Structures are given as C-alpha cells and as structure tokens.
Amino acid sequence: ASTLHAAAAEQGRYFGTAVAAYKLSDSVYTGILDREFGMVTPENEMKWDATEPSQGSFSYGSADQIVNRALSHNQRMRGHALAWHQQQPGWAQSLSGTALRNAMVNHITNVATHYKGKIYAWDVVNEAFDDGGSGARRDSNLQRTGNDWIEVAFRTARAADPDAKLCYNDYNTDGQNAKSNGVYAMVQDFKARGVPIDCVGFQSHFNSASPVPSDYQANLQRFANLGVDVQITELDIEGSGTTQADNYRRVVQACLAVTRCTGITVWGIRDSDSWRASGTPLLFDGNGNKKPAYTSTLTAL
Ligand code: XIL
C-alpha cells in the first residue's frame, strides 16, 4: 500500500494522528490527513478545560467538529483524555476531596455519554504515575481524592460507553523502568479484580534525552501478556534524516512484532504542527512534504 493507514490496515493495525480543530480549514493539512491517516485523536479539544469550561456547563463545539469530520471520512476516533492532572479548568483546579471526585465522575459520565458509540478507544486516565524511581502514583489533586480515583474513572467510563475500549495512557513508560513497573502492577491488579481496562497507551515522545528504548518491544509485550491491547499513542521523535528514519522504523517494527499492538498514532502531521517548541519530530516537513522518516515508516509497515 502507498499510504500509512492503508499499509497499517494490511497488517490489521491502524495509523493515526493528533488533529487540531483550528487547522481543519488548511487544505494542505486536511489533504494529508485524509490521504494518510485512519485514526484521529483531538490534540486538545476533548480535554477537561475545553469540554467543561465552567462546572456543569459542557462545550463540545470544537471536539464535535473533529469527530463528525473524522467519522464522515471513514476515520475512527481515539478520545483524549477524560481524567488528567493537566489542562483542567480553573474551577476544577480549586476543588478537592469529595467535591472534586464527584466533579470528575460527572465529567466522565457527560463526555463519554456525549460521544457514546463514536469512540474506538478512550484515554480514560492520562499520566497518573510519578517520574521518579518510586513507581508510585503522581501527586495531584485527583490522586489526593483517594487512591481509587483511577478505578472509579474506568468504571464510570464503562458505564457511560460500554463499547469503547478503555485505556490508561502515559509517557516515559515506553521501556521497562520504575514508572512502567508501577503502571504494570496497576494493570495486573485491575485485571485481577475485574476493574474494566482494555488497553494501555504508550505516548512515545522521544528525543536524545529519552530515546527509543532498547526494550520497547519487550515492554509492549509484557503489557499485552496481561490481557490488554497496547497502542503507541503520541509518537514523535526529535532528529532528522537517516537517524530519525531509523528510529521511526524501530518503533513500527516493535509494534508489528506484538500481536496486541493494534495501532500507532503520531502527535501531529507536519513538523510545523508539533507541540514541541523546536525541532522536526514528525513525518512531514512544514510544507507537507514526506520526510525520510515517512518513507521508513511506510516501508516498515
Ligand atoms: C499537548 C498538546 O499537543 C499541546 O497543544 C498543548 O498545549 C499541551 O498538550 N501528553 C499528552 C498530550 O497526553 O495531551 C499533550 O498534548 C502532550 C503530552
């Protein structure tokens, strides 16, 4: 196949990208989006601050624009993210305890119900583990409502949209380390106790300080062996030329080697669309031209 998603589909996988609603009027952007990608993650539009700017008052305009467009172009949706310590509206940041817990549950119920039946997989909880060597939960206002906040989030999402796959998503969990060990133990515990979890997302933001880990495939496989799907959810790799192309190839090969690695999403289309302040981490240059990393990715699929 000659495009990313068509090539991934031949392997029973998807290939997706993050999309920003305000770019959907850019025909170069949408041209690449519709030609190359079969899965769409809203880059910011489904986050708590965007969807519930004041408590109990929901705002779905930008997210609906992305969802309706994707579904009418035969693209599936990854929902991102129901519960996260970042990009919370100010009113939620100032809540705590039972009031915050109830607000989280109400938020998840409302958003997952609004999109019921339209989402392939939800990032139910994003980035809940600490970066230090402890493997512990990250301190956050949500964590301080009680250690069961993550399982409550998953049960709430399942009740609202029983057909969506429910994922835990994080960064710096791509290789085997204290943080991914902590997530692994949580998933193992959830499976043992029947907490509904279907998948684990590995953000995979790579650069020279955080390169593609040598045990990437082994780490994906150990999670898959727990009985969950795994996905690469926010891939970008700093660099250029052959080195970057080789790193993208390694990521694709690691996913394809794991039966339950169901797809790969890059975090933006052109280098100029990247959230990173500098660098050239994506598959298309600022003019929308294919980079060597595009070719190595397509060839590896
Ligand atoms: C980023 C977006 O790309 C930016 O536009 C925004 O300013 C901040 O968030 N991990 C995640 C994503 O789960 O939601 C983040 O997206 C990147 C890191």
From TrEMBL:
One of its GO terms (biological process) is xylan catabolic process. Its EC number is 3.2.1.8. Keywords: Carbohydrate metabolism, Glycosidase, Hydrolase, Polysaccharide degradation, Signal, Xylan degradation. The active site is at E234. It catalyses: Endohydrolysis of (1->4)-beta-D-xylosidic linkages in xylans. Residues 1-300 form the GH10 domain. GO terms for molecular function: endo-1,4-beta-xylanase activity; polysaccharide binding. The keyword Hydrolase applies. The keyword Signal applies. Belongs to the glycosyl hydrolase 10 (cellulase F) family. This is Beta-xylanase. The chain holds residues 33 to 333 of 453 of the full protein.
